[in-house]
Design brief:
Blueprint (H helix, E strand, L loop, with lengths): L7 E5 L5 E4 L5 E6 L4 H10 L1 H15 L3 E3 L2 E9 L4 E4 L3 E6 L5 H26 L2 H6 L5 E5 L6 E3 L4 E5 L7 H16 L5 H10 L3 H9 L10 H4 L3
Parallel strand pairs: 1-3, 5-7, 8-10
Antiparallel strand pairs: 2-3, 4-5, 6-7, 9-10
Helix pairs in contact: 5-6
Length: about 230
């Protein structure tokens, strides 16, 4: 760190110092193995304007972040020989096939969300099974699927349906939706009695409800050109 720009150093077999902006926005300085940190800091400081310009351009190409488990991840779309998606601490990397269009990428993302959500939401339901005891209802059958305009629903048969897009939310909001649907197993409407039960399970349910009204998952508007890395 030179006081202005954060960067990571990679010492390797090469003759000169080079600066690279990685796909996830990290500045990486690659230098000969015996290069001193002071020499690297001086080189970075001398190229600060260039680095800032390249970082700004990279940020524009990335498009809007995509939230996973409540944390924004920069999306990087690449062309490859097989489709796959890889999640890291700061990045969601989507590898598509040449010729894939926006809808193909969205379907790929939805399929990936389904795999992640089935495991995650099942764990969240188990973590909150005490709510079933409080409500005096049985553990419901869980069905997970992509829902474009709803976070969840339930049926008279006792099945709870949860949207794959819940994995984009912070865990407390995911749990709020689960609480909401469990309360419907007891009261299948939005009567005062329903909200009394919500008050028991989620005392701040009003704030969480308002927050969710403002959230857009972004799945339906994602475009390859906004994230494609060449």
């Amino acid at each position: 760190m030179d006081g202005f720009i954060d960067y990571q150093i990679k010492l390797m077999r090469r003759k000169t110092i080079g600066i690279y902006i990685l796909p996830d926005g990290v500045v990486e300085v690659r230098a000969p193995k015996r290069t001193t940190r002071q020499s690297i800091a001086t080189f970075v400081a001398g190229n600060r304007q260039w680095i800032e310009q390249r970082m700004a351009l990279a940020e524009q190409r990335k498009g809007r972040p995509f939230n996973v488990f409540g944390r924004p991840r920069q999306v990087l779309v690449e062309l490859g020989q097989r489709r796959y998606i890889r999640l890291s601490a700061r990045q969601l990397r989507i590898v598509i096939l040449p010729g894939d269009d926006d809808e193909a990428m969205r379907q790929q993302l939805k399929a990936w969300l389904l795999v992640i959500a089935r495991r995650y939401l099942a764990r969240r339901l188990v973590a909150n099974l005490d709510w079933c005891h409080v409500l005096r209802v049985d553990k419901p059958e869980l069905r997970v699927r992509y829902m474009r305009s709803r976070w969840g629903s339930c049926s008279l048969s006792g099945r709870v349906n949860l949207s794959t897009t819940l994995v984009q939310l912070p865990v407390e909001f995911c749990d709020y939706v689960i609480a909401h649907e469990l309360c419907h197993l007891r009261v299948f409407n939005h009567s005062p009695r329903f909200y009394q039960l919500m008050q028991v399970l989620q005392p701040d349910w009003r704030l969480k409800r308002e927050y969710l009204k403002q959230i857009e998952t972004g799945v339906e508007v994602m475009q390859i050109k906004s994230y494609l890395h060449r």
